[in-house]
Amino acid sequence: MKMKRSFTYLILLALFAAILAACGDEATPAPSNPTSGATTGTNTGPTAGATTGGGNASAVIKDTVAAATAVKDYQASIDLTYTGTGAGNLSMDVVYKGSLAASDEGASRLPSFKGTVTKSTLPTIANGTVAVLGKDTFLYDPTTKTVLKGGAGAASSEVYNLFIGSQTKAATLFSSDLATPTQAGDEKVGSYDTTKITFVPNPNVTSTFGKNAKGTVWIDKASKLPVQLDYSEEGGGQKWTVSNLKVNQNVPDSALSFTPPADAKVVDSTQFGQAQTVANLDEAKSKAGFSLGTVSYLPADLPKNPTSVSVQTTPVGNIINADYSTKANAPVVTPFPNQKGKDPAANAKGISIRALQSSVGLPSNLPSGAAISDVTVGGQKGTLAVLNDNSAILTFSKNGISYTISSAGYGKDEVTKVANGIQ
Known about the structure:
Layout: H1 8-22, H2 57-70, E1 73-84, E2 88-97, E3 112-120, E4 130-133, E5 137-141, E6 146-150, H3 158-174, E7 179-189, E8 192-201, E9 214-220, E10 226-233, E11 236-247, E12 265-268, E13 276-278, H4 281-288, E14 308-314, E15 317-327, E16 332-333, E17 342-343, E18 347-357, E19 371-377, E20 380-388, E21 391-398, E22 401-408, H5 412-420
Parallel strand pairs: 6-12
Antiparallel strand pairs: 1-2, 1-11, 2-3, 3-4, 4-5, 5-6, 7-8, 8-9, 9-10, 10-11, 13-14, 14-15, 15-18, 16-17, 18-22, 19-20, 20-21, 21-22
Helix pairs in contact: 1-3
């Protein structure tokens, strides 16, 4: 399981900063203690009579950005539905402390979060999964009955990423650089009276939105926050709806606490050592106490020896990481507002092999957007997660070692060949 904060949150901050700039004048801040039944932000949006035509969508969005900026804590139940790759449904109860947008503290003030999965048909997240991120970190996987416990600091989990990803999708649509909004009337969403805003993405930003993309956001008139989103593009989409929304209720820290089940194995992630770079696989074997195994197959354009090798110690066993990669020939263009230009060239293509010798089944944290299937590797059951034609992850066990093979620039067939070639 990844133990670093996803950069999605920083992207969200950058997007909201761009939105504020695009709206013109600085948005009027919302009252310091709004509730789900109280107004947040200035009511410069449309009245109940402005229900058709273009309307003043920009004013509604401006109020929403101001309301999101004023959020200090947020509680809700959210139901998410995904179509296309990784299709399925997920419901979770969320407790969140921190702004939903940029604030005076900036990106240095990361939020605290607790997400409890109450229902899931997603293949990567089981019912009962819990993620607590903040002063203390608990990542509970009911399928392995394992709790990964951490101390102060950032962490990442797929549950957190799904929540932040849902908010980021709405924020991306709000950016005037990326999509054109139209006020489409008033609608009832659950118990909320909402303003409906439809969006037509800019066709020139295909790296942000897929082909034939379209989106609609329903904004609660009382809280000024989104309570429903429906987004689709060629090949898939997502829809989410919020209920039981409570904002700025002075949520106590106890609301983010978690007591592991009595039958769960608790692994203290603070005892994970820092990954130490070593010279080669022989040195890795000496430090880790086991061998990665012989990698007999790699794509023809990759080096036969790893470009980097590291060893990490943990309370449940040691880990060897070996990367086989090639450098990109060209820089990468970023699609985000206020970040126009080119990033430095990165490792464009590669295969990474992670090996853990342990009797404890740690969560693999496969991405929820992937197409998951069971496969056979060397006569043993494995799990294949396909993100797209050029990215896949395969997990399996062999000779008491748990392997995770991931790719960038190579599809499922190449990843499967690498796995079957480990001897």
